[in-house]
Amino acid sequence: MRVTEHFKQADGQTLISFEVLPPLKGGSMQAIFDTLDPLMEFKPPFIDVTYHREEYVYKKRASGYYEKTAIRKRPGTVGICAAIMHRYGVDAVPHLLCGGFTKQDTENALIDLAFLDVQNVLALRGDARKFEGRFIPEEDGHNYACELVGQIVDMNDGKYLDDLIKGEHASKTDFCIGVAGYPEKHFEAANLEHDLRYVKQKVEAGADYIVTQMFFDNQKYFDYVDACRKVGINVPIVPGLKPLTKLYQLNSIPRLFHIDLPDDLVREISQAKSSDARTQVGIEWCAAQSKELKERDVPCLHYYTMGDSSTIQSIAEQVA
Ligand code: FAD
């Protein structure tokens, strides 16, 4: 079922959903099941699976020279989606990137997904590769997520890249399309207003809903939703949530996700006496965020699990 149909059927009730990462190459599907099994009691209507494009690494050879090699550390997104749908009977939402994909690759990926009965995708641009200063699309790939949304919409209309595929040979897909939004703006955008113009472009291109980057201060989400509504973005905006439970995350989260952390949270995490105490601070903070968001009738609380089901479980138990 389409994600937006789940929102409609919930009839104002706040749903709970999760995002998982494919295991590192060499890992097994069991790692995903171990993360998700304890979370199924919260009846997620859908589960997102992230996509990880290839990265360049430099390997030292016997000659002393370094060789540049492309590797994919976390392959398996499509297979994991199929396995999740098979095991739990819930909808899976694969993340689909512009980065690393030609338009043909995208079309083929969408055909695979449609054949697997996957009805939802989160359409993203992806980041620049390490060692590249800016995002570089494939030749004949998409520059921005809005273009990817456009290609998915075309396939929903039965339009394929090869215009000889038409009539009875051009079956229409029926993808519900999610896109990303950034309450603290995307780090490359000149300012929030500018960023919102492009979010609106994604919605006008056919995106059905937005999932936000994580945030630790709900006011940022409320302000973002207000700003979206003011510029005419009227699709559901799902808050993305992650508990901060480790000391090193005080630096890594702002650096990786380009967001600020509230001073109270920084102080509480810094002053906690043990790793268990820090975990508890993170759980309480995220549970308080979740409760307030639920009181304000958000369509869904979307948790970034990052393989840590016990922390997410403790939070979800407080809000379910
Ligand atoms: P876009 O919407 O294309 O925007 C990128 C930048 O370009 C923004 O600054 C925007 O303001 C600007 N822009 C947009 N359109 C235009 C235009 N037409 N002209 C000029 N400027 C424009 N990354 C992964 O690699 N794998 C994942 O699975 C993944 N999942 C994510 C899930 C969520 C919920 C979020 C919030 C992010 C996720 N990301 C993931 C990270 C994402 O790929 C990066 O944040 C990326 O830098 C931007 O992606 P986007 O889809 O928001 O890009």
From TrEMBL:
<keyword id="KW-0028">Amino-acid biosynthesis</keyword>
<dbReference type="GO" id="GO:0009086">
    <property type="term" value="P:methionine biosynthetic process"/>
</dbReference>
<comment type="pathway">
    <text>One-carbon metabolism; tetrahydrofolate interconversion.</text>
</comment>
<keyword id="KW-0520">NAD</keyword>
<keyword id="KW-0486">Methionine biosynthesis</keyword>
<dbReference type="GO" id="GO:0035999">
    <property type="term" value="P:tetrahydrofolate interconversion"/>
</dbReference>
<dbReference type="InterPro" id="IPR003171">
    <property type="entry name" value="Mehydrof_redctse-like"/>
</dbReference>
<keyword id="KW-0285">Flavoprotein</keyword>
<keyword id="KW-0274">FAD</keyword>
<dbReference type="InterPro" id="IPR004620">
    <property type="entry name" value="MTHF_reductase_bac"/>
</dbReference>
<protein>
    <recommendedName>
        <fullName>Methylenetetrahydrofolate reductase</fullName>
        <ecNumber>1.5.1.54</ecNumber>
    </recommendedName>
</protein>
<dbReference type="Pfam" id="PF02219">
    <property type="entry name" value="MTHFR"/>
</dbReference>
<keyword id="KW-0560">Oxidoreductase</keyword>
<comment type="similarity">
    <text>Belongs to the methylenetetrahydrofolate reductase family.</text>
</comment>
<dbReference type="GO" id="GO:0106312">
    <property type="term" value="F:methylenetetrahydrofolate reductase (NADH) activity"/>
</dbReference>
<comment type="pathway">
    <text>Amino-acid biosynthesis; L-methionine biosynthesis via de novo pathway.</text>
</comment>
<dbReference type="InterPro" id="IPR029041">
    <property type="entry name" value="FAD-linked_oxidoreductase-like"/>
</dbReference>
<dbReference type="GO" id="GO:0005829">
    <property type="term" value="C:cytosol"/>
</dbReference>
<dbReference type="GO" id="GO:0071949">
    <property type="term" value="F:FAD binding"/>
</dbReference>
